[in-house]
Specification:
heterodimer; A: seven-stranded mixed sheet; B: 124 residues; five-stranded parallel sheet
Chain lengths: 719, 124
């Protein structure tokens, strides 16, 4: 019906029509209606007149009226269709496009094609859009400057918190995490593979037993002096214990308003699991020391006393008692050996509870020696040691200076090497100071150890420093005229704790107390699954699940989940061709039971979003009994969001959506679970901003907005 | 010919016990109580084995052990450290050239086993 469906020979005519002014074209519609109507009435009158029957002239009038009436209705309908196709629909589409530009940052030009019969309206709308884009970019530049300043401040704050020695969490009034630092990530992140419950916008109760934290918050509410309260809290499964200190965060802007205070909190945490265990271990050991030594010692004394009595002159008795002495002594010796071994293996560590990167330690020693005029070469080391790096660097530096003073050594080098085989405490690595020249007598070395360490460690000798580290130092020949001083040190427990760097540690907007019922303030998990086929109820299975989190309508690129799943059935080549997941790749991957549990844990309480959510949910819901979890949170479908914005007839495939919303999916990422997930997330964020611009702010309003379109996803269209 | 052992041990009671133990196995023992006496003895005779108490004052027996290893004339001498520490002292002993380490308190069998090991390797 549209005028665009015409042959090439008529294009010239259309060009001319396009150039007519809008008023002329609308006048022509009505002129056509008027003239057409008049002509039809004339034609009908003539038709009636030609059938005039003098016997019943009334019938001719009726015929005229009926013919004229039908023809007029037909003409009006035709002209209305023309009007609808070429005026009404383009106006709506233009309006929708303008709205998209008003609420989402679309930079592409407006589509003129549909609105070409609207005269100047399309160019005018395009000018508005351009103007908007320009003023936006000017405003944007100003905002960007201001934001850059804020970001710098925030980065400083985050840097300060990152290096704070304790794990730190900022909690919203409803106990969601608005900020965490590096220590929190190291200590609370249960490990990769999406098991982590630590993430922005997520409830702190996914990490900890709720009682102690709620109790502390209540205690804080009752106090008015702004002091902090202490608490002891265990992780959800009780495997770690933390000592915490909680304080209210008072927002100065809000303190003056009458609004009821819903304070956010700052929670500093220290892992005391090891300390508590050490304490228990030490107490046990002490008890055992007394227990295991007191008895044989007492027995020994009694037996020896008995040996000295005159009754024991008899040979047989003496032999028996002597045997008893031997057995008790052996028991005593065995006990001491056993207790000493336990003491040495004890995991309690004393003063140096610090992790020191080996490279820092080496550089610190090098700098000090350079100041004293001694050059040492360093071997770079990726290891992290558990020691007081500064004290150890001073110690090895002092020893290097003493060796250099003798004048028979040159070519000094410092290195930290991991032990080839794991050794008992302290163990894991050695700090080696090597040189070319004469060997070092251990007697001389021993004398040096009585010198004070200095550098602020008042009253501490080198020997004390070694003992505090449960370590020792000795010379060893290296061959080729080289010798070294070797100092064993413990490796930091999680030396590989270079946990995947996350860029989003904080979302301070969470603290500003955005109303939780606002849609864009909700916490979402966007996900996508890849499967063996399209029939969830006919044996097809999931082969991959990917997800990413949205907090405060921001996609947290780093807070993602990506896991291959063993479908426990073959993967058809036709499916592998789409998503690239092969049977080799899923061999050894967790089954849906385990993967589903991990995914459920990743979701926490967040609402789910997926493109064609019914499809993905069908797979998950079918396995709920095996997963032993229920996916009963709200589920949003981006197809429905798209329909609510652009109507039922617009294409709603992910590609179409991405194109409309300027979301780029790298070709290699399309049809990978994580690639589609990220694209869906970007699209969802933009669409929710647009819906909010149309006044859709709450869940209820959203429900009402998408309700008319439910039927388009019911039949699984838009795959 | 009987094997000779130089025992560098500060504590009389242990020295006496070790002496009785090893003499019963037909070994000739010479006992000294400190590093100076040990150096003197080593300059006069070359024993098969030197058994050293690691816990003497200062660097203690480790010094004698290191000196024996650094002296080419004593290359054939085996050294045994008697330690009271655990893994660290054991590691240090081997690093300084000990051929064997016996942890105190020790049983008679442990000493005999160590002696056998050392004398066998020497014979080999």
């Amino acid at each position: 019906m549209a005028l665009s469906e015409v042959g090439p020979e008529e294009e010239g005519v259309i060009r001319r029509i396009e150039r007519w002014p809008l008023r002329l074209r609308i006048f022509l519609f009505f002129a056509l209606l008027a003239l057409g109507g008049a002509a039809l009435i004339g034609g009908a009158a003539w038709f009636g007149y030609s059938r005039l029957d003098s016997a019943a002239p009334g019938a001719a009038f009726v015929l005229t009226a009926i013919t004229g009436g039908f023809a007029l209705v037909a003409l009006t309908v035709w002209i209305w269709l023309l009007f609808d196709e070429n005026v009404a629909k383009p106006v709506l589409s233009l309006a929708s496009d303008l709205r998209a530009r008003a609420h989402a940052d679309l930079d592409s030009a407006l589509d003129h094609e549909a609105a070409r019969y609207l005269g100047d309206l399309a160019p005018a709308a395009a000018a508005v859009a351009r103007g908007l884009a320009e003023s936006r970019s000017e405003l944007g530049a100003a905002i960007e400057r201001e934001q850059a300043r804020l970001l710098t401040e925030r980065a400083r704050l985050e840097a300060a918190l990152r290096d704070a020695p304790a794990a730190c969490l900022l909690l919203t009034h409803d106990h969601r995490i608005a900020l965490y630092n590096k220590q929190a990530l190291d200590q609370l992140d249960a490990g990769g593979e999406g098991l982590s419950a630590l993430g922005l916008g997520r409830s702190v109760f996914e990490l900890f037993d709720p009682e102690p934290i709620r109790d502390a918050a209540e205690r804080l509410d009752r106090r008015e002096d702004g002091a902090a309260v202490d608490l002891i809290c265990a992780t959800r499964h009780g495997e770690r214990v933390f000592h915490g200190r909680m304080r209210q965060l008072v927002d100065p802007a809000r303190a003056e308003t009458a609004e009821p205070a819903r304070p956010s909190h700052v929670l500093m945490l220290r892992d005391v699991t090891a300390e508590l265990a050490d304490h228990a271990e030490t107490a046990n050991l002490l008890t055992d020391v007394f227990d295991q030594i007191r008895r044989p010692a007492a027995n020994l004394l009694t037996t020896i006393e008995a040996l000295r009595t005159p009754e024991c002159a008899e040979q047989e008795r003496r032999v028996k008692l002597q045997a008893a002495v031997v057995s008790e002594t052996r028991r005593l010796a065995d006990s001491i050996t056993d207790l000493a071994a336990r003491y040495e293996a004890g995991s309690w560590r004393r003063w140096p509870q610090i992790d020191a990167p080996a490279s820092d330690l080496l550089r610190s020693a090098e700098t000090r020696l350079a100041a004293e005029g001694l050059t040492v070469s360093l071997e770079p080391s990726p290891l992290t040691l558990r020691c007081d790096g500064f004290a150890i660097a001073r110690l090895i530096g002092d020893l290097a200076l003493k060796i250099a003073e003798r004048g028979d050594a040159a070519d000094f080098a410092l290195a930290v090497a991991a032990d080839a085989a794991p050794l008992s405490a302290p163990g894991g690595a050695t700090l080696d100071l090597s040189w070319r020249g004469a060997p070092l007598n251990i007697g001389a070395l021993d004398a040096w150890l009585d010198a004070p360490l200095g550098g602020g460690y008042v009253g501490l000798t080198l020997r004390d420093t070694l003992e505090a580290h449960k370590s020792d130092v000795w010379p060893e020949p290296l061959g080729d005229g080289r010798y070294c001083l070797r100092l064993p040190l413990s490796l930091a427990e999680n030396a590989a704790s270079l946990s995947a760097a996350r860029s989003s540690y904080a979302d301070l907007d969470l603290l500003s107390g955005l109303s939780h019922d606002r849609l864009t303030a909700c916490n979402f998990v966007v996900f996508d699954t890849e499967t063996t086929g399209l029939a969830p109820n006919n044996g097809d299975e999931i082969v991959q699940i990917a997800a990413v989190r949205i907090v405060n309508n921001r996609v947290l690129q780093d807070d993602r989940f990506d896991m291959l799943v063993d479908p426990e059935r073959p993967i058809p080549a036709s499916s592998t061709a789409i998503h690239g997941v092969t049977e080799e790749m899923v061999a050894g991957a967790p089954t849906i039971a385990e993967a589903g549990r991990r995914f459920h844990a990743f979701c926490g309480g967040a609402a789910l979003i997926a493109h064609n959510a019914n499809f993905d949910m069908a797979f998950l819901r079918r396995h709920e009994p095996r997963i032993e979890r229920r996916f009963d949170q709200p589920v949003l479908d981006t197809v429905l969001l798209s329909a609510a914005l652009w109507g039922k007839t617009a294409p709603h495939s992910l590609d179409a959506l991405a194109e409309r919303l300027d979301v780029t999916i790298p070709p290699e990422a399309r049809h990978t679970a994580i690639g589609d997930t990220l694209a869906t997330a970007e699209a969802a964020v933009k669409m929710m901003a647009m819906l909010e611009g149309r006044g859709v702010r709450s869940w209820d309003e959203l429900e009402a907005a998408i309700a008319p379109y439910r039927d388009i996803v019911a039949n699984g269209a838009n795959l | 010919m009987a094997k000779t052992v130089l025992l560098v041990e500060q504590e009389d009671s242990i020295a006496l016990a070790l002496q009785f133990l090893m003499e019963g196995d037909g070994v000739v023992i010479q006992r000294v109580a400190d590093n100076a006496a040990a150096r003197q003895a080593l300059s006069e005779t070359t024993p098969d084995i030197v058994m050293i108490d690691s816990m003497m004052p200062k660097a203690g027996g480790f010094e004698i052990c290191q000196e024996i290893r650094l002296d080419p004339k004593l290359a054939g001498v085996k050294t045994v450290m008697l330690t009271e520490g655990g893994a660290l002292a054991r590691r240090k002993s081997y690093a300084l050239g000990a051929d064997d380490v016996i942890a105190k308190p020790f049983a008679r069998d442990a000493v005999r086993a160590a002696m056998r090991r050392l004398l066998e390797t020497e014979a080999a």
